[in-house]
């Protein structure tokens, strides 16, 4: 009997050793993302969590809820402001409602390519906008910026070669005024809708088109309910990893530093996962038979959106826009 209990105790001790630090985390940060588990943004957050745990000896961890388990983006942004969610990876578009100056990142054609956007995000522009006072006043700040590639239009109706092809098409846009006005300026009729509602809206013909990047087109299954993807790349929307401001301030200095370090490292990891997934998604979408077309002349589109720049570029935004333009190659 005694021998049995000694063996049981040894087994328990071994099990505890294998299962990692004996103490529970002191701080658990509820973290949201509306993308599925294997998506680069969730992989970025998982990487951040592992690194953070290593840096803090298991004292701080992220409890990650992917796939919109905590709600659609607009709703989870409010929950992050309120502190019900601590960390939230979102698209910049709906965050423009908290700080208008962020609209500079959502202006159509503002980034020339991937490298241009990375240079901007890694420069003082990215840093200054992460902690812009309007954002902080709204109750959040950005820890870092993830990548989301280019956004182009996909349609069940017809391919887009020139702005005329958008006339009469109803296109879903994210909840952000600048996205609505950009699409309307291009000639489409814009309908605001949450990401999770787009599949059935396309399927039932409530909308004709939507716009997004390769991985989103693929993982949502939208490619099953559209026929054309026209690579106009009208937007490149960076994705802030937001944190509730009180949560951020209540962390000890040591934990905060570890969090910043883990967030920065996860940005690089996320970018490498992004490239891999974008290629893979493109292959899958092409194989599924969606007709893909390049848009050779985007100047026509750029001319159409000039009024959006006139309307949206405020005096405060102007210096940011100039710095973005200077960083173009
Ligand atoms: C991208 C982005 C999401 C966003 C979605 C949208 O997929 O990663 O965070 O919700 O675009 O179009 O709403």
At the fold tier of CATH, the topology name of the largest domain is D-Maltodextrin-Binding Protein, domain 2
Unreliable stretches (pLDDT < 50, length at least 5) are 11-20
User: Which hetero ligands occur in this complex?
Assistant: alpha-D-glucopyranuronic acid
Strand portion, in percent?
A: 15-25%
Tell me about this structure:
This protein is of the alpha/beta class and 329 residues long. The protein has 2 domains: 26-148 and 237-281, Bacterial extracellular solute-binding protein, family 7 (D-Maltodextrin-Binding Protein, domain 2, 3-Layer(aba) Sandwich); 151-236 and 287-326, Bacterial extracellular solute-binding protein, family 7 (D-Maltodextrin-Binding Protein, domain 2), CATH 3.40.190.170. Strand 6 (170-173), helix 9 and strand 7 form a beta-alpha-beta unit. The protein is globular and about 60 Å long. The chain is 47% helix and 18% strand. The chain is built from 16 helices and 11 strands. The strands form 3 sheets. A 5-stranded mixed sheet has the order 2-1-3-10-4, sandwiched between helices. Helix 2 runs antiparallel to helix 13. Alpha-D-glucopyranuronic acid binds at residues 34-35, 73, 90-91, 148, 174, 195, 212, 216, 239. Alpha-D-glucopyranuronic acid binds next to loops.
């Amino acid at each position: 009997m005694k021998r049995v209990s000694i063996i049981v105790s040894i087994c328990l001790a071994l099990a505890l050793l294998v299962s990692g630090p004996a103490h529970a985390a002191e701080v658990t940060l509820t973290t949201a993302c509306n993308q599925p588990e294997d998506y680069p943004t969730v992989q970025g957050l998982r990487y951040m969590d592992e690194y953070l745990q290593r840096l803090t000896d298991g004292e701080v961890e992220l409890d990650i809820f992917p796939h919109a388990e905590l709600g659609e983006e607009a709703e989870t942004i409010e929950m992050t402001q309120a502190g019900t969610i601590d960390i939230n990876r979102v698209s910049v578009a709906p965050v423009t409602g908290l700080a208008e100056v962020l609209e500079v990142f959502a202006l159509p054609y503002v980034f020339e390519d991937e490298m241009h956007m990375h240079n901007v995000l890694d420069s003082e522009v990215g840093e200054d906008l992460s902690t812009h006072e309007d954002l902080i006043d709204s109750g959040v700040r950005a820890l870092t910026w993830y990548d989301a590639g280019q956004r182009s239009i996909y349609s069940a109706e017809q391919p887009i070669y020139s702005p005329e092809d958008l006339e009469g098409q109803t296109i879903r846009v994210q909840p952000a005024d600048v996205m609505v006005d950009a699409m309307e300026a291009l000639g489409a009729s814009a309908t605001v809708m949450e990401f999770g509602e787009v599949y059935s809206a396309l399927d039932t013909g409530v909308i004709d088109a939507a716009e997004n990047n390769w991985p989103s087109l693929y993982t949502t299954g939208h490619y099953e309910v559209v026929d054309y993807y026209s690579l106009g790349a009208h937007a490149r929307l960076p994705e802030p990893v937001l944190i509730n401001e009180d949560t951020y301030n209540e962390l000890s200095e040591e934990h905060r530093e570890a969090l910043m370090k883990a967030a920065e490292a996860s940005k690089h990891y996320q970018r490498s996962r992004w490239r891999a997934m974008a290629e893979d998604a493109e292959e899958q979408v092409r194989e599924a038979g969606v007709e893909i077309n390049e848009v050779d002349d985007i100047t026509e589109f750029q001319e159409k959106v000039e009024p959006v720049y006139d309307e949206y570029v405020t005096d405060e935004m102007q210096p940011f826009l100039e710095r973005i333009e200077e960083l173009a190659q």
